[in-house]
Design brief:
With about 280 residues, this protein is α/β, with parallel strands linked by helices. It has seven helices and 22 strands.
Length: about 280
């Protein structure tokens, strides 16, 4: 006898008894209409074997694991050609695309750009109304995001001479971000000058913007080095020649020639001034 569902008779689907060890790979309305078991019956063969509840599942799992560890020897005439193509795409072709596409488009979005700009991969994604000034010999790695946060007036982003900004770095400009000369910023760094939401939970629920006190400037002064994965929050100034260790979260000013680390970042030690170093006080 078939099953009757919403006025429609569904004929039963017969499965051989030996198939009971394998998961149902397609939807069978007679198996379990609208139940959790019906969703579980549609698991893939890998998920089914991974359970290892029966001898067959354990044998299939072992076979799949062995297959996944198979290694094919390279075919020189084929794979050398593929390797050459990859190197060409990652080398000369990428440089050509940067010079003909990424760098000209970036220059059009900047107020001023110095000589010898190098965009190593994709140009930064620029969101909002930013006034951008780039110095000489600036190097930009790929997948960066530059954001004028909060709307309203124009936000200012200024990068000095001989600076490099690493892969997947976020520059979220609350009021302004100033990066001095000879600054090194590693990959996946976030300079975040804007909180994004108010502290009041009811105001957040109403989707209200944060007040002006929730945004602020960020300054990274000359010769500073920012390690990978660092987060620098609004109102912070990183002093000249300072080093911020990887993964640090900087919530307060960093003194000149200080090494800071941790969350929140704290001074680990003070660095000795190199020969010929002039402090900010002596220069002023």
């Amino acid at each position: 006898m078939g099953r009757r569902t919403q006025g429609v008779t569904i004929a039963p689907v017969l499965r051989p008894s030996w198939l009971r060890h394998f998961p149902r790979m397609s939807y069978d309305p007679t198996h379990c209409l609208g139940t959790t078991q019906c969703r579980e019956s549609n698991v893939g063969i890998i998920e089914w074997a991974r359970r290892r509840e029966t001898p067959l599942q354990r044998r299939v799992f072992s076979a799949l694991k062995s297959i996944s560890r198979l290694n094919l020897r390279p075919v020189p005439i084929v794979h050398r050609g593929l390797l050459t193509l990859r190197r060409f795409r990652r080398g000369p072709l990428r440089v050509l695309a940067s010079k003909l596409y990424s760098e000209p488009l970036l220059r059009l979005q900047c107020t001023s750009v110095g000589e010898d700009l190098l965009v190593e991969e994709n140009m930064p994604k620029i969101l909002g109304h930013l006034s951008i000034c780039l110095g000489k010999r600036v190097t930009l790695s790929g997948e960066q995001v530059w954001i004028a946060a909060g709307g309203g007036s124009v936000r200012t982003l200024q990068v000095g001479d001989d600076c490099s900004i690493g892969y997947q770095t976020e520059l979220i400009v609350g009021t302004s971000i100033q990066i001095g000369n000879h600054v090194r910023i590693a990959s996946r760094v976030s300079l975040n000058g804007y909180d994004g939401h108010p502290l009041d939970p009811l105001a957040r629920a109403r989707d209200e913007p944060p007040g002006p006190e929730r945004s602020g400037p960020i300054a990274v002064l000359d010769y500073a080095w920012i390690g990978s994965g660092v987060t620098i929050l609004k109102g912070v100034t990183v002093g000249r020649g300072a080093i911020v260790a990887s993964r640090a979260v900087v919530t307060r000013d960093v003194p000149e020639l200080a090494l800071v680390a941790g969350n929140p970042a704290r001074v680990v030690r003070n660095l000795a001034p190199p020969p010929g170093w002039q402090s900010a006080e002596s220069e002023s």
